[in-house]
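Hi R.,

Here's the chain you asked about this morning:
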Amino acid sequence: MDSIYNQTAISIDGKDVSLEQYRGSVLLIVNVASRCGFTGQYKELQRLYEQYCESGFAVLGFPCNQFGSQEPKNNDEIQTFCSLTYHVTFPMFSKIEVNGNGTHPLFVYLKSHAKGIFGSESIKWNFTKFLVGRDGKVIQRYAPAASPMSLTNAIERALSPIV
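And here is the predicted structure, written out as tokens:
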């Protein structure tokens, strides 16, 4: 597999979503959680989405409960929390696993194409971010502590026309 486009995921409201629909877009794919020290990043993720969505950019949020049980909520509760607390309008997906035997295939792909610190594929915590280019290939992996707004230059580069 040479891009994310043959992947599918389940939206937070239970619908099958082909990532093919994002072909040609720049994506920031993030594993998220509602009870994490980084949960406040939802605000910046939403800000990035609003700032660049008209230019072909989207944030895709994937809740995960594998790190300190910081996402114990069900999909309905997650959706309500994100909407009411952070006014999230970017696409959110059903809760998944990002490590171990149950790793969602999208994250298998992302991790294999953008290794973490010391070459590790494992995701270390919530709010690990993957910037994906218009071609569906991973540009860069960012640590949980990386502020979403600190990615604006990389996002703008990925959005700029190829000359």
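One quick note: The beta strands are 8-10, 16-18, 26-32, 57-63, 129-132, 138-142.

Cheers,
M.
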